[in-house]
Structure of HTH cro/C1-type domain-containing protein:
Amino acid sequence: MAKKKRKYPELTALKGKIREMGTTYRKIAEEMGIGVNTLSDKINGFYAISGPEMEQIATILDINPKDVAYFFMPSYCKTQQRSA
């Protein structure tokens, strides 16, 4: 089996938020109605996260709309500073 290639940035800030909220990929995937492996692959940058999926995850994790880019678009935010 061929090794998967990361096509998108790994969402490390999102992983931290998941830990901070005391939840798991499994719980989030169940709420979204997708497989846990699919969610993991998306968070780890192997597949893209769609806009509606970002919205679902942000709602589940209580992410402020102004912080969505920080959690889901890290390459865009490298030069941006996160608002407090």
Remarks:
- The chain has one domain: 12-77.
- The chain has a mean pLDDT of 90.
- The domain at 12-77 is CATH 1.10.260.40 (434 Repressor (Amino-terminal Domain)).
- The longest helix spans residues 51-60.
